[in-house]
């Protein structure tokens, strides 16, 4: 089994307290002087002097601010404000995000990631996809209601499969054009309407690498907050290693031996001459580690 | 391992042909006299004389119709038209859906389910959630583009965990208020931003039944097209069977012995005096069957 306890963006200590979200009176009672409000710079985290996430109080936010109820921590209600604008560019290019992933304690990173996905969704859903009318935050931020038609909208999480493929002791990894040189990772793709996890894995490997995968096995999952994916990590096997790479998606894909992967892992962030091992905060890191260590 | 080959709504014979979606010329070339267009009555299936899904040609649909490219079947392009209106009521109350689930061959049911989710999403996303402007179908129905701002929107699939909980040889099942009398099924709930599959399973069981689950294990998944969920079926264990039922979600939840479950399965659709076994087209059926037979 993968070491699921150390997967980045999981393990938030906040209790989601669903029963409060759905009860207007209970939610109002939580909006008191003890409540904590996550400080955000747009969608980016703000750090306090100790390098932890910074929290303020309800007095710090305008009365008109839309607030999401994240849940309870040490008996105190935790909120996050919806920013004026949602995510516009890719998060991986943002230095504040990189420093957060490297600096924050695991539980705090999970709290930040979950809050970010939620408030970003609100910022990008101020209108009703059904009728175009304005929407309003409801249920403590776990719903938006259309003011024109009666449509209800809910925060979105997109399931994505990310997979290892093995052929006779070697693993298939690929690189996207945006990756730094020598960095390879597991192939991945969104689960589409009408397919199982296993079907999505097989389709992605076929589309991206021209390889037929069998015996798909679930390994571990990760919430990924850029903007809001559920990464479903799997392992599979192929009988024929011949690659036909989809060059619109991938720069390259190759088979790596156990020795190459072990060497890259041991080399840390700088990698070997051939390979930089997937970073510790991505689930591909856990998948390859699981495969090497099992 | 669960018998994944027989999970309803999976196993469509249509090849999704992603490379055609993203290539305007290739897509236009497929819109010829050989192309097949799925007949739908709103979102409901239409059957031909043999009880299979009925297909027409491009000549049957208005030139202004929005069409989704489902993929290739026997070398022919398959399309489905976006209906005027998306899903409004719950599908489980619709007799045409029930008869489709019972009558269609597995591959055809999967084709219908995937097409339904996709065209329903289009019908409910004619406007941009970011700016309220009108949107237009793009990429053969795998995207919508806003005509006012530059936002791109993609078909939505919601990951849902559905789980068995075992305590000393008994399984926890619950019933929603809308279920027929004596019908119990596995507990379930949406995966939220910021949590893993395992965290979502533990949270749902805690919220709905007041039980702490451990050792969550993935069993099987199912695409569920009402409107578009990815059901992620899991198994878990608890050490303390005392229940605190969330009566806003559940009518009842109870522990069932192996003998009770075996008897209900053997009794078929009519069930025993205590229990109707989950229907064959829901993943709960496969989860409980997997548990009984392993």
UniProtKB/TrEMBL annotation, chains A, B:
CDD domains cross-referenced by the UniProt entry: NUDIX_NADH_pyrophosphatase_Nudt13
Cited Gene3D superfamilies: 3.90.79.20, Nucleoside Triphosphate Pyrophosphohydrolase (3.90.79.10)
Annotated ranges, domain Nudix hydrolase: 155-282
Swiss-Prot/TrEMBL keywords: Hydrolase, Magnesium, Metal-binding, NAD
InterPro entries in UniProt: NAD-cap_RNA_hydrolase_NudC (IPR050241), NADH_PPase-like_N (IPR015375), NudC-like_C (IPR049734), Nudix_hydrolase (IPR020476), NUDIX_hydrolase-like_dom_sf (IPR015797), NUDIX_hydrolase_CS (IPR020084), NUDIX_hydrolase_dom (IPR000086), Znr_NADH_PPase (IPR015376)
Protein family (similarity comment): Belongs to the Nudix hydrolase family. NudC subfamily.
This protein's name: NAD(+) diphosphatase
Organism listed in the record: Altererythrobacter litoralis
Recorded name of the encoding gene: nudC
């Amino acid at each position: 089994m993968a070491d699921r306890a150390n997967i980045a963006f999981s393990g938030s200590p906040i209790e989601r307290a669903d029963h409060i979200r759905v009860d207007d009176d209970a939610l109002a009672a939580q909006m008191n002087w003890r409540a904590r409000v996550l400080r955000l710079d747009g969608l980016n985290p703000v750090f306090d002097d100790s390098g932890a996430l910074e929290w303020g109080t309800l007095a710090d936010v305008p009365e008109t601010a839309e607030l999401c109820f994240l849940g309870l921590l040490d008996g105190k209600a935790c909120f996050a404000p919806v920013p004026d604008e949602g995510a516009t560019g890719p998060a991986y290019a943002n230095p504040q995000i990189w420093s957060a992933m490297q600096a924050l304690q695991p539980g705090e990173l999970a709290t930040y990631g979950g809050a970010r996905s939620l408030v970003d969704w609100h910022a990008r859903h101020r209108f009703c996809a059904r009728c175009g009318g304005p929407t309003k935050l409801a249920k403590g931020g776990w719903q938006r209601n259309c003011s024109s038609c009666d449509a209800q909208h809910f925060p979105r999480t997109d399931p994505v499969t990310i997979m290892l493929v093995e052929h006779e002791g070697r693993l298939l990894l690929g690189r996207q054009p945006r990756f730094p040189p020598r960095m390879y990772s597991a192939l991945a793709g969104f689960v589409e309407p009408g397919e199982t996890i296993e079907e999505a894995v097989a389709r992605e490997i076929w589309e991206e690498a021209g390889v037929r995968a069998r015996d798909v096995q679930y390994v571990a999952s990760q919430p990924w907050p850029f903007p809001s994916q559920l990464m479903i990590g799997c392992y599979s096997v192929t009988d024929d290693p011949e690659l036909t790479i989809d060059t619109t998606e991938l720069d390259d894909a190759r088979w790596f031996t156990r020795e190459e992967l072990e060497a890259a892992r041991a080399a840390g962030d700088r990698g070997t001459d051939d390979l930089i091992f997937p970073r510790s905060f991505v689930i591909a890191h856990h998948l390859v580690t699981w495969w090497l260590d099992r």
